[in-house]
Design a protein that fits this description.
The chain is of the alpha/beta class. The chain has a six-stranded antiparallel β-barrel. Strands 2-1-3-4-5 form a five-stranded parallel beta sheet. A hairpin with a 4-residue loop joins strand 10 and strand 11. Helix 1 crosses helix 5. The longest helix is centred in the middle third of the chain and has 22 residues. The chain is elongated, with a radius of gyration of 21 Å.
């Protein structure tokens, strides 16, 4: 599955140059010409990169404040395009990860996205949730155990389904085994949410580095497989 980006700009030169640049990185580009419509898109869709034409688009700069206060794209890699009004420091203070000054060129945008590409992939892995059913053992305190099933798995935690009643507190650790030789994982965890329909979310806490590396490698393999299947 390719990385996805949103460009909020009505400047044809900016649109044209970024289309060329992102095509070289095989990054999909969606273009939105207004800040208000851009905010609506960002409230419901997750992107790997967001580029905002801050100085030449009414409401462009304020989009960074919206992103900072939102949830869906709060940690997305963000690029600010400036044109002599907003300072670079101001853009960084508002949450931009990278800044480009007009007039932008293919060379400059290539350098910027080359520097950002690894961060974008890292963020993709962080929020990527693999739909999968695995048996998981939850341990509460010293004696109480409960078997549940995952509905998805990510770098930071998992969503589970369960029968009966989930204890409201006291979860100390979880144990599960990744398929295809991924190995057993045992770590501390906490309950992040419960929805009342026998579903809950667990957050990994203090996972040993060796096990974290195995989980990251396994998730990367799943992402690559999905990308190959989508071609």
């Amino acid at each position: 599955m390719p990385l996805e980006s949103l460009l909020v700009s009505r400047d044809p030169q900016v649109v044209g140059i970024l289309r060329q640049t992102l095509e070289k990185f095989s990054i999909d580009l969606e273009v939105c010409e207004g800040a208000s419509s851009g905010k609506e898109i960002l409230s419901s869709e997750k992107f790997d990169a967001i580029v905002v034409d801050c100085d030449d688009l009414q409401g462009g700069l304020e989009m960074f404040e919206t992103l900072r206060n939102g949830q869906t794209n709060r940690t997305t890699i963000k690029f600010a395009i400036l044109n002599g009004v907003t300072t670079t420091q101001k853009a960084f203070d508002l949450g931009a990860n990278f800044v480009m000054q007009k007039p932008i060129s293919v060379l400059n945008s290539m350098r910027c996205f080359t520097a950002a590409f690894g961060l974008m992939e890292r963020e993709r892995r962080r929020y990527f949730r693999m739909p999968i059913e695995l048996s998981v053992l939850l341990v509460f305190g010293e004696k109480q155990e409960m078997k549940v099933t995952t509905s998805n798995l990510s770098e930071g935690g998992m969503a589970i389904t369960y029968r009966g009643k989930l204890p409201p507190s006291g979860l100390t650790r979880i144990v599960f085994t990744l398929p295809e030789g991924g190995g057993m994982t045992e770590c501390k965890a906490s309950v992040a949410w419960v929805d009342g329909s026998s579903r809950a979310g667990l957050r990994f806490v203090d996972m040993p580095e060796a096990q974290k590396q195995k989980l990251d490698t396994w998730l990367e393999d799943q992402i690559k497989r999905q990308e190959i299947q989508s071609r």
